[in-house]
Amino acid sequence: MSETIHSQIRTFVVDNFLFGDHSAPLADDQSLIENDVMDSTGVLELVSFIEERFGIAMADADIVPANLDSVARIVSFIERKREPVN
Amino acid sequence: MRVETFLRQSAAADPDRIAITAGDTCLSYGALDSASDRLAAALIAHGAKRGDRIAVLMENVPEAAVSIFAVLKAGAIFCPVNPQLRADGIAFILRDARPVAILTQAKFLRACEEAAAGLDTPPLLIATRALAALPQGVLAFDTAMSEAEHKLLPDPGDDEDLAMVLYTSGSTGRPKGVMMTHRAMDAVSASIALYLRNSADDVVLCALPLAFTYGLYQLLVCVRTGARLVLERNFAFPQAVLDKARAEGVTGLPLVPTIAAMLLSMKDLGPQALPALRYLTNAAAPLPPAHVDGLQNLFPQAQLYCMYGLTECARAAYLEPEELERRQGSVGKAIPGTEAVVVDPQGREAAPGIVGELVVRGPHLMLGYWENPEATEAVLRPDPQTGLPQLHTGDLFRTDADGFLYFVGRKDDMLKVRGEKVAPREVEAALCTCPGVVEAVVWGEPDPVQGTLLRAAVVACDPALAERDLLRHCARILPDYMVPRTIGFREELPKTASGKIARRLLVETDAPPLAPAIGPAAKTGD
């Protein structure tokens, strides 16, 4: 897992969804939706953030729980998207 | 007809027909009927009596439907509680409605226990979806159902009994419990089913919370007509919801403007996204005209119903889809079997084009607010013609020459955020409980996705206090949609001559935002 992507995503989630509360327990594999960390409008904010910060154009089919519903899933999605296509 | 009779009749007509699908779970009418019988028996065995209140604090899970019908079969009154509420919000309802039990999910137990702390007789907690052993004293949903002997359910009561007490935000900042009889819920669900032409062939996808009227009536109308309800927890992942909707052959899709905006912001959605879709509905807040056009382009074969409702009567008006082109922005006329008229301050029917308050008459009105006669008298007043109660909605409307209704605005300061009612005073009160805050003001700013963005400003006596501290404080005690987007700091707040904080003055003078939102703001609507 890329450390820089990981820390950027974690910072985004903590800043935006937990209002900077770094003491809140948030495991990397924890579901953001199920644990009420992120809601519908939170997903929209997250998508904008990924598009702007990482220069990734997200298709509708990318915006699914498998890609976005935990810190670890978001990081691995960004890593996959940034790999050069062979 | 009592509300649980909807289920009895649909289960008797076709017990194998699917009532609810949610994720991988599928519940037939027969299964929903027998599960709610068993839970009703368990509630009675644990002391629930006719007229007792029982809270149902759940997300959109099938157990919520089982719980609602079980409470009614036990002769008790269900009290839907928004699962987004924090302990403080739950505590208010526990103190006000004094439920004898709370049916909930294990993940909300901590909030329930915190909310019940200090009560003389704390409600019995019955929890489902536990990932680990339940705490001492908490009854497991499945255990309760499996132990119960359900052959001898007593007569639950009659149509005039209360079926539900549903809390809604009040402009004073104090939530009010809307009391609904079985008769009123029967009347309004029959009316809705009639104008939407619902039948057992319908498959309705509900991503709206069951804890609010608009979502709840998706369940009730489906059960009444023998239709299938596809429950989704939320609309966070639109593509996943639409894939599910397509797979289930969804014919009805209820929306609020925020969900419509999310649908329309999807990039790859083609016109055949939902081939079986027969109708869309919108309520909670008006759809912007561009979204009306967008939805019609996206779902050309479906009819779009623009509707208007409020918790106090569930639904008041709807526009026949054929009128959509000619009556842009209208919510139509009163739903079948009821009346909705615009009146002037003297209570006389206003002429077309004249703005007045909408009053609603009919069998679907609430009985009043739970143990709050002053608030009841303020909104349920006798119709001068008939002497029967009529509901003063607090919403300003005008009509066109043909009597079609157009929403103009609110008489008070109530706002709609993502379709949810928000009282600025409730948010201000929450801000003022933060140490270091002297006074606070909250107002709304139009937003293409959320409808309204909440802004706040405070006067603080603690110079170390930062915006983030205040946001965190709010998030701890308020549901997400009530947490302001930004909170600015001021030396003082503008006041009226009488010393009240002038919210309107702030809205008008505060064109540039007070402070940038933390992190990049969502700009999905443009």
UniProtKB/TrEMBL annotation, chain A:
Gene3D superfamilies associated with the record: ACP-like
Record-linked SUPFAM superfamilies: ACP-like
Entry superkingdom: Bacteria
Coiled-coil intervals, chain numbering: none
InterPro entries per record: ACP-like_sf (IPR036736), PP-bd_ACP (IPR009081)
All residue ranges annotated as the Carrier domain in the record: 1-82
Protein name: Acyl carrier protein
Native source organism of the sequence: Aquamicrobium lusatiense
